[in-house]
Amino acid sequence: MTKILIVEDHALVREAMAQRLARLEPGLECLESAGTEDALALLDANADVDLAIVDLMLPDMNGFSLLAVLAKRFPDLPAIVVSAMDDEASVRRAFAAGASGFVSKASSGDVLVQAVRETLEGGMPTPARAAAAAQSDTQRYRFTAAQARVVELLSAGCSNREIAERLGLTEGTVKVHVTAIYRALGVGSRSQALVAIARSGVQL
Questions:
Q1: Which helix (H) or strand (E) holds 30?
Q2: In the chain, which segments carry CATH 3.40.50.2300?
Q3: Is residue 52 a contact partner of residue 80, using CB atoms and an 8 Å limit?
Q4: What is the predicted pLDDT for the residue at 127?
Q5: Cα gap 193→118, rounded to integer Å
Q6: What percent of the chain has pLDDT over 90?
Q7: Is 32's pLDDT higher than 90?
Q8: Segments of the chain assigned to CATH 1.10.10.10
Q9: What is the pLDDT of residues 99-120, one digit of tens each?
Q10: Which residues have C-beta within 8 Å of that of residue 42, sequence separation ≥ 6?
């Protein structure tokens, strides 16, 4: 049975998400928290939580900081950010802090359910416009889907080891992808790749 923790300080939003997620599968259980202290206590008491859903605007700690705490204390727990702060910088910062997925609060409940399903299966859902931009850049540079995900995490400042952990790959596989990305961008180092990505307008 899937168990999901929802960390959201607005009760109506939190309850609406829980009701929508209940449709994901029979018996799905949602734990609800209005703040980070209670959320961490719930996780300590429930080792079988499969996924955390985190808002970025919380009363006692911002969501970025909570993501970092979750990544350190519960490294095997995937976390999806659901936030109205869905600009590109916030999305990148969320992934850099440890998010496994990102859903804009402007999205429908069906989008949230799909993002949860995708994350539980090992995917990394992003807002629609970010996904569209990534698709455009994938075609432009002929990145494979896997390489596009690596580029996204490179842009977020992740090391090869962190990328491997996030994507469930070996570091050797990540190095192969990074080498191919350098070749596509016409560069020979990570710093040059980041500059090329920024200058070319690649948005991930």
A1: strand 29-33
A2: 3-126
A3: yes
A4: 66
A5: 29
A6: 31
A7: yes
A8: 130-200
A9: 888 998 888 888 899 889 888 8
A10: 5, 31, 33, 49
Q: What CATH architecture does domain 3-126 belong to?
A: 3-Layer(aba) Sandwich (3.40)
* Of 181, 172, 176, 183, residue with least CA distance to 148: 181
Which of 16-20, 93-97, 161-165 is modeled with the greatest confidence?
16-20
- In angstroms, the CA 31 to CA 195 distance is 42
CB 103 within 8 A of CB 127: yes
- Going from the C-alpha of 202 to that of each of 7, 133, 150, the distances in angstroms are 32, 8, 13
SS3 142: coil
Total residues found in the chain within this entry: 204
Q: What is the mean pLDDT of residues 32-58?
A: 94
CB 178 within 8 A of CB 160: yes
Classify residue 62 as exposed, middle or buried by CB count within 10 Å of its CB (0-12, 13-18, 19+): middle
Whole-number average pLDDT of the chain: 84
- According to the CATH classification, is domain 130-200 in 1.20.58.760? no
Residue 131 has what pLDDT?
Answer: 47
Whose CA is closest to 86, among 119, 52, 63, 110?
A: 63
Structure tokens at 13: 């939003």
pLDDT tens digits, 164-184: 888 888 888 899 889 888 888
